[in-house]
Amino acid sequence: MTIEGDMNITVTDLGKTIADCFKFRHKIGLDVAMEALREAWNAKRITMDELHRYAKVCRVENVMRAYLESLT
Predict the structure, then answer these.
(1) In this model, does residue 67 exceed pLDDT 50?
(2) What's the predicted TM-score (pTM) here?
């Protein structure tokens, strides 16, 4: 998949995509990452366990912690 120009992205599953948004927040913007997290959570398409697991995989646990706490 290509977005805006020549940037290729791979879409895996929702949890990984959200964690990747936080990992690349400096490139895509923190507002995009927060919106993705908020929309997935409000639509009940993701669990807290999935978010924690992928945050750990992408090494953004500390970054995402405050945002995950604000959801509950």
Answers:
(1) yes
(2) 0.81
